[in-house]
Structures are given as C-alpha cells and as structure tokens.
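Supplementary Methods S3. Complex input for the zinc ion-bound model.
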Amino acid sequence: MAKHNCAICGAEVGLISEQKLADGNYICRKVCSKKCLKIFNQVEATLSSVTSHIEQVEFGTKVWNQIFVPLTKTKVKEEKLKRFGRNGELYVSPSTGLVAVTENRYKIFIFGKTTLACVYRLADLYGYDYDYETVKNSEGKEETKHYCVLMFQNTPGMYQVRLEIRGSKDFDSMAKYFDTQFGIQKTLGNIKNTFKHQMDAAKAIAGAFKAAKDGTMDETKAEETMDILDTAKYGDRTEWIAKADAALASVK
Ligand SMILES: [Zn+2]
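Predicted complex, serialized as structure tokens:
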C-alpha cells in the first residue's frame, strides 16, 4: 500500500489516515485535517488554501475568545450579537463590525466544549445567496436542506461560507438584516435613498464616459467611478471597515 506524508506536519499517512487535496497533496486526518472547520471543503482545497484556512481558524478562534465571548454576556442593547444558521453558528457583532462562523467541538469524557471560529469583517461581505439541495435521509426519504452562501472579499482561507439554515424564510430575514446594516434599501419605503445612490452612480458613469472621450480618463477617475458604483450596489462601508479594524487591532 502506498504511503504518503502529511504535507503540513510530515506525519506518515495511509489510506484511512490521509486526506487527499485537489492539488494531489495529502494531509493527516489525525491532526492537521481537524484544524479545519467541517464546512471547509478539503477535497476541493489546495495545500496553500488549507494552510491559509488553518491560520484563519487560529486567529479567528482568538478573536472569538477575546471579542465575541464577552459580548455574548453584554447587557448593552447595541452590543448584542445577532445569530443566524441552523444552530446559531453565525454571529454578527454590529458594535465591532465583525462576523464569526463557529463550530463547537465536544470531547468525550471531558465536560465542556471548545469553539473554533473564522472571523470576518462585515464590510467584506459582498454576497449572500440562498441555496438548497434534496438529499435522501437515513430512512431513504427525500429531504430538502437549506443553505445560505456568504461570500467575503479580502479573505485568505475560507472566503465562501455555505451554512445550513432552517429554511428560505430564515435566509430572507438574514438578507434583510444585512441589507439594513449596509444601507442597501430595497423596500419601497426607502426608495428615496436608493434613488440618490443611483443618481450618484449615473452621474459618475456619465463623467467617466465624458472623460474617456476627452482623453482625460485616468486611473483615479476610473477608481472613483467604481467606488460610487459599489456604493450604490453594496452600500457605503467606510464606517464598518473602521469599526472592524479598530476591534481587530485590539486582539493580542
Ligand atoms: Zn499533519
């Protein structure tokens, strides 16, 4: 039987103790594979994405313990964490601008649990979609599983999070919550603000076209245009970035 070595810790692995990655590398199931969250897809991962993810979990777990755990006990309304996901695995902290995806690990014979986490800046959340799949359960009956898929920018490691939720209604309330945080207003009651953003965007595009025609289009101008377009679509995230960076800077 072919023996391989774990590409991270060097341990010798075999058929049962190895996890093959998409790039042909192997990692050990006993230690290194367990450092990844279960929702991280190891089969599709490369060695560099696995090591980035492991670093992400190590740092995220620190942030979880230092910032999120104290906030779970807060009495201050503005600091309260918002939870989503089938078992509440996703925590949003509006006061720090951070998002944590958590996984509890229970040890047999030892009371208590440890929590691993990946922490993201809310400002980097650039996509949230609903997804579902039909699977056969243990009794052979078809069952629909529901997911939310979150996409984060500026994120080495796991930048796409596919988390199980109870149903599409849960997704709707989550999407509404994020839209509200970012000031992306889709409801008719708030159309004025959306309209203003769209007008700003339209003016910026017109300006860019004119500049291109005059030959005065430069990178700064192009970047400004993209920024205004992003604001219309994704909301203004300046304050969310500042909040999150201040919180992360305090992590030891
Ligand atoms: Zn290993």
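The chain has a mean pLDDT of 87. The two ends are 45 Å apart (CA to CA).
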